[in-house]
Amino acid sequence: MPGEFTSCGLPFFRNYYVGGPSSVRGFEANSIGPFYQYSDGYRQPIGGSFKTVGTFELYFPTLFDNRGTRLSAFFDYGNVYTSPDNWEAKTLRLSAGVALQWQSPMGPISISWAAPLQYERHDEIERLQFTFGGSF
Questions:
Q1: What domain range includes position 39?
Q2: Chain segment 44-91, per-residue pLDDT in tens
Q3: Is residue 37 part of a domain?
Q4: Phi, psi of 107 (to 5 degrees)
């Protein structure tokens, strides 16, 4: 619950976190899910023990006759809950956008632009995201 510190029974480093280029693009990393609201306005994500996340991605034919580059359109969804009992479909965050992945000589590079479709007032939006490294 926003503003309440409720433990899900796990140490904070074992909790799940959602948001960012590796889960729900269009939101800041680890910003979706339960959080603790401090009196000075700072929000501390506390994560949860139950995570729902998914992606539908459509890859287009290669660009510029370069096998190391690909363009895609995506639809991401997800959220984190303190327990499976708290899961509700209407609380899932949704985003859609486009991404460009390039297998550069120094490693994979990905740039994505996403528009959040379903979000809460307190969610931290980050439409343009850039990653270097990771799987391609």
A1: 15-132
A2: 888 888 999 999 999 988 766 667 888 999 999 999 998 888 888 899
A3: yes
A4: 130, 170
pLDDT confidence of residue 38 = 86
- What is the C-alpha separation between 19 and 131, in angstroms, rounded? 14
- Let me know the angle formed at the C-alpha of 16 by 10 and 22, rounded to the nearest 5 degrees: 160
3 within a domain of the structure (yes/no): no
Query: Is residue 4 assigned to a domain?
Result: no
Helices (H), 13-116: none
CATH assignment of the domain containing 120? 2.40.160.50
d(CA 111, CA 102): 9
Q: Which secondary-structure segment (H or E) carries 52?
A: strand 50-59
Query: Could you tell me which of 97, 117, 91, 96 has the C-alpha nearest to residue 33?
Result: 91
What global pTM score does this model have? 0.81
Q: Averaged over 97-109, what is the pLDDT? A: 90
Structure token pair of residue 45: 């994500």
